[in-house]
Design goal:
Elements (H helix, E strand, L loop, with lengths): L11 H10 L4 E2 L3 E2 L6 H4 L42 E2 L20 E2 L12 E6 L5 E4 H4 L4 E9 L16 H5 L2 E10 H8 L11 E6 L7 E4 H4 L4 E6 L2 E2 L9 E3 L12 E7 L14 E2 L5 E2 L8 E6 L11 E10 L5 E7 L7 E2 L1 E2 L9 E9 L4 E9 L8 H8 L12 E4 L5 E4 L3
Parallel strand pairs: 5-14
Antiparallel strand pairs: 1-2, 3-4, 5-6, 7-8, 8-11, 9-10, 9-14, 11-12, 11-13, 15-16, 17-18, 18-22, 19-20, 19-23, 21-22, 23-24, 24-25
The protein binds ligand MTE and cobalt (II) ion.
Length: about 425
């Protein structure tokens, strides 16, 4: 095995192969243990001596108990209670791009409701040819579509405007999930009701609201409603979880999470926006001079290193190090991610695990070497429109420090000689 690399420039691959051929475990700075010293590989273990759990051990499975720290978490001081609150996806502990539903963040304005399929109704009214009410079974008979999209709350990273505050990627960037949705196109439903009466669709709006007490009403320009929006029933192959809008929610690809109305119950075609609470006093961005940006729907390109990060320190000593993270853009596909180890002075291009997908998370890796040097780790995403993720300083110059929403600045983790990481800012 080792000879095939003879004469070749030492590489990460030849190093790993050599270590395995010597019969040792990788440890510390690439030291190889003496052959046969490790009973975990030389001795028969308990788990190979007895039968395991039976096949009906858990009819619906949960992660193995060793992984019980990979869970949603709250920031207690952020909200007054749990009914109008938010928790965070443990992005520091996940890999790939799909977020398992059981740890995908939740955001409710008036709690998660339990709504049976039999009690579910969806009404379309306003400027349509025929006002209609659909049951859940009616919805299932429209042609089905499948697509993976990220949902990012507009408030993600919102606590970081005035300074580095929360110590972990879960808390700074965890108001995001990425699931494969199955459902029907919103366009097919609107066409069923008929849009002839609406006339010119360019200046029309669709007001959407949920069945929960908050209703979370939002106005969506008709052009977007007819483009790529979906009414989803399933996420990652199974029914939506209660907390994500069972039995049906709106999917508004690339746009702020607040528009993705859960438990969707009514849609009204209108000739103007409603100017609801969620699009006037909330989900607008206050600038330095006190004026506000409005209709800030699209989530601009953004990325974060998920490991190493404060909750995912380097534990393996010097040698090969995998730096990894997530990138996304509400304007389309991610085309490149750069990584800096020195706070943005120099950059290396990361490897994308797969070609960027439209309005979905992209996983990136940088396979590198670490010899204990301090790092100011950053990632910078570029999307297919040519947009480049801005630095925190550049974003603050335009937006000031009073905003909550749409903070897509470059994040910095300081990594010390022990491999521990901390949320910092570089100037
Ligand atoms: N829809 C309803 N009906 N009620 C809500 O409180 N919260 C919104 C949106 N849709 C909300 C809603 C907000 S602010 C976000 S970020 C997303 O749902 C969160 O979706 P999730 O709970 O599936 O993560
Ligand atoms: Co939100």
């Amino acid at each position: 095995m080792t000879t095939s690399f003879k004469g070749a420039k030492p590489s990460r691959r030849s190093f790993l192969t050599g270590a395995m051929a010597a019969g040792g475990a990788l440890a510390g700075a690439g030291a190889v243990k003496a052959a046969g010293a490790d009973p975990l590989i030389t001795e028969v273990q308990d788990w190979a001596s007895y039968g395991g759990d039976g096949v009906d051990h858990a009819p619906y499975g949960l992660p193995i108990n060793f992984e019980d720290d990979v869970v949603r978490r709250n920031v207690e001081w952020l909200t007054a209670g749990t009914v109008s609150s938010i928790n965070f996806t443990p992005i520091h502990a996940l890999d790939g791009t799909i977020t398992p539903a059981g740890c995908a963040f939740e955001r409710h304005h008036s709690g998660a409701i339990e709504l049976k399929k039999a009690d579910y109704r969806l009404m379309i009214n306003g400027l349509v040819d025929t006002e209609m009410v659909f049951t859940y079974d009616d919805l299932e008979r429209f042609p089905r579509v499948n697509q993976t999209y990220f949902l990012e709350c507009a408030a993600n990273t919102g606590m970081e405007w005035a300074g580095a505050q929360l110590n972990g990627a879960q808390f700074t960037h965890g108001m995001i999930h990425n699931m494969e949705y199955s459902g029907i196109s919103l366009r097919s439903l609107l066409e069923e009701a008929g849009l002839g009466k609406a006339g010119d669709l360019k200046d029309k709006w669709l007001y959407v609201e949920g069945a929960d007490a908050s209703s979370n009403g939002r106005s969506i320009p008709m052009e977007k409603a007819l483009d790529d929006c979906m009414i989803a029933f399933k996420a990652n192959g199974e029914a939506l979880r209660k907390e994500h809008g069972y039995p049906a929610r709106l999917v508004v690809p690339g746009w702020e999470g607040n528009l993705w109305v859960k438990w969707i119950r009514r849609m009204e075609v209108m000739d103007q926006p409603v100017q609801s609470r969620e699009e006037t006093s909330k989900y607008t961005d206050t600038l330095e001079d006190g004026t506000s940006r409005k209709w800030t729907w699209v989530m601009d390109a953004k990325s974060v290193v998920t490991s190493p990060s404060p909750q995912a320190p380097i534990k393996h000593g010097h040698g090969p190090l995998v730096i990894t993270g997530l990138a996304w853009s509400g304007r389309g596909k991610i085309t490149r991610v750069d990584i800096s180890k020195d706070g943005g002075m120099t950059w290396e291009t990361a490897r994308l695990a797969a070609e960027g997908q439209d309005k979905a998370l992209t996983r990136f890796y940088l396979d590198t070497e670490w010899t204990g040097e301090e790092m100011f780790l950053q990632s910078r995403a570029l999307d297919e429109t040519g947009y480049v993720q801005p630095t925190k300083a550049a974003l603050r110059e335009v937006r000031g420090e009073n905003s909550i929403y749409h903070n897509n600045c470059i994040q910095t983790w300081y990594v010390n000689a022990n491999g521990e990481a901390e949320n910092v800012e570089v100037s």
